[in-house]
Amino acid sequence: MTNHGEEEAAALGTRLAGTNFDAVYSSPLLRATRTAEIAGFPNHQVTALLREVDYGDYEGVTTKAIQDSRPGWELYKDGCPGGETPVQIYARALEFIALADSTGGRVLAFAHGHILRAIAVAWMSLDITAAARLLPDVATISVLRHDEHGRLLAVWNAQSV
Hints:
The protein is built from six helices and five strands; from the N terminus they run H-E-H-E-H-H-H-E-H-E-E. It has helices at residues 3-16, 30-38, 63-69, 75-78, 86-101, 113-123; strands spanning 23-26, 45-46, 107-110, 141-147, 150-158. Helix 2 (30-38) links the parallel strand 1 (23-26) and strand 2 (45-46). It has a single domain (3-158), classed as Phosphoglycerate mutase-like (Rossmann fold). The relative contact order is 0.17. The chain is an alpha/beta fold. Helix content is 38%, strand content 16%. Strands 2-1-3 form a three-stranded parallel sheet. Strands 4-5 form a two-stranded antiparallel sheet.
């Protein structure tokens, strides 16, 4: 993690201070676990359900380079050879939602952009391809809420709750 990343994680912690969570989860990848720790949640539970999408043969390849060889390619439509398919990404998002629901309370998740997009659309029962239309920023807050209207995307990419 860069110094700038650590500063963003600390600022996120400041924004979350005073908010109580019934469970805090993190991806097993260092960037997410370190962000959780710096943000003030050292006792988070690590779950592979929050790891970044498996890009398989495309790991480390830019979207532009992939699209140069496969025009029109989209992660959530086409998946990755040797990696996860859109169906697998969506299923993992649903598994995390079930885990979060099992806490019966407020949940905080430290994860990565592509899986967080998938969780948001799975929460709202949208097709996985809709995830491509959500742009996550680093160290921002998004809120998924359930109320009398059903499952809602209440906040996306906010600097505070």
